[in-house]
Structure formats: structure tokens, C-alpha cells
């Protein structure tokens, strides 16, 4: 049976994952920067224009949620792409500096550190035998369960942080 050509065979294209590590990382990195804009706008409204704290509450809520989602995404993509621990930590730190996630994404792109698909099957790479890689492949083979688990964890962490109170209190 001849091999299908993904450029002309619609079933081959449909079989490709729609959300690559690159697309997921980039989407959440941009969302994190957008929520920085909302938070900063809310702060300007509150502290410069004396327009109340609704903007800070809404912007802070959205930014906090996306900030945590970005952290989870950076770790997941970093493990999948086999980034060094220091690079994963650097990705996490970019969320603390306003708008830094977008240039960091571009930096990763220029170095081909977002290349490749989700690693759902073992390869010849000797690192595939590690416990972390086996566990990662296991969860990546069930993307809906992974997404649900990450969503539950995100909501649980966010709810806990909300219960503890806003930063600076």
C-alpha cells in the first residue's frame, strides 16, 4: 500500500494533532501578555484616574488565572521538548516580567526549541527510558484526560490562592 501524502490526502492532514507544543506555548504566552495589559490598565484606572478597583479586580483575576496556566504550559512543553531545567525556570520567570513571554517565545522559536510534535511514543533517544519521559508519554497519549487533569489542578491552585487573599495583603 503506498504511503499517503499529507499535502494532498485530507485524512492524513486530519490525523495530525491540531495543537502542537509550539502552538500551545505561543497561544498561552500571548494570552499571558494580554492579561498583563488588562492588569496594568486596571492599575492605571485605579491609581492614576481614581476610577475604582473594578479594573484591577477583573484584570488581576484574569491575569492570575492565565499566569498559572502559562506556568503549567511552560513545564509541560519544556518537558516535551527536553529543555534543560534552567530553561524551564527561565520560561517561568518570564511570566513575572510584563510582556516577557512573547520575546521569550520568539527566542525559543529562533533556536528551534519549539520544534516537533508531542512525544507520545518512545524513540531511539536514550532519555526515553527515564521515569519522567515514560510518565510524560503516558499522559500525552490521553490528551483529553491530560487537559481535564490540568484544568482541575489549575482551578484548585487558583481557588486556594484566592482563599489565601490577593497578593500584598
UniProtKB/TrEMBL annotation:
It is a multi-pass membrane protein. Pfam families: DUF3817. InterPro entries: DUF3817_TM. Residues 23-110 form the DUF3817 domain. Signal peptide: none annotated. One of its GO terms (cellular component) is plasma membrane. The chain crosses the membrane at residues 28-49, 61-79, 85-104, 144-164. The keyword Transmembrane helix applies. The keyword 4Fe-4S does not apply. Keywords: Cell membrane, Membrane, Transmembrane, Transmembrane helix. It is found in: Cell membrane. NCBIfam families: integ_memb_HG (TIGR03954). PANTHER family: MEMBRANE PROTEIN, MEMBRANE PROTEIN-RELATED. This is DUF3817 domain-containing protein. It comes from Marisediminicola antarctica.
